[in-house]
Design brief:
By secondary structure, the protein is mostly beta strands. It contains one helix and ten strands, in the order αββββββββββ. It has a two-stranded antiparallel ribbon with strand order 1-2. A hairpin with an 8-residue loop joins strand 1 (about 30) and strand 2 (about 40-45). The N and C termini lie far apart (about 70 Å).
Length: about 130
């Protein structure tokens, strides 16, 4: 049996490449201190980015973005799906716990989720104790 090699690459036009770079690329500044590699690399557009369809994602310092994980930003916790987009108005099952993120994508840490479960300080949801 012959084994076929597959490729995960594709070709795009120069116009599409320029558009992708403008939309997804990081502005990078490298500071050199003599010969050798840069002494410092500064990323200018780290943080929140909004897609043309209104969805949000979060650029990391290394140029990547958060996928299928939580991200803390300015004291608030947010969850990003497998494609890197912010989840909003959703229940997130994480380990043994369930969490709720509101319409802005923030994990609630007080009050109740829409299904009536109480948010604990850590954001996990629990049914109220029966009276």
């Amino acid at each position: 049996m012959e084994k076929r090699q597959t490729s995960l690459s594709c070709r795009i036009s120069a116009e599409q490449a320029a558009e992708n770079k403008a939309r997804f690329g990081l502005d990078v500044e490298e500071i050199f201190d003599g010969d050798g590699p840069p002494a410092e690399t500064i990323y200018h557009n780290v943080g929140w980015t909004q897609n043309e369809d209104g969805r949000w994602w979060y650029h990391e310092q290394d140029g990547g973005y958060v996928q299928q994980n939580w991200q803390e930003s300015e004291g608030e916790w947010y969850f990003f799906d497998e494609y890197g987009f912010l989840k909003t108005d959703a229940y997130i099952r994480w380990g043994q716990n369930t969490y709720y993120v509101d319409k802005d994508g923030r994990m609630i840490t007080e009050g109740r989720a829409p299904d009536g479960r109480q948010a604990k300080e850590d954001g996990s949801l629990a049914w109220p104790d029966p009276v």
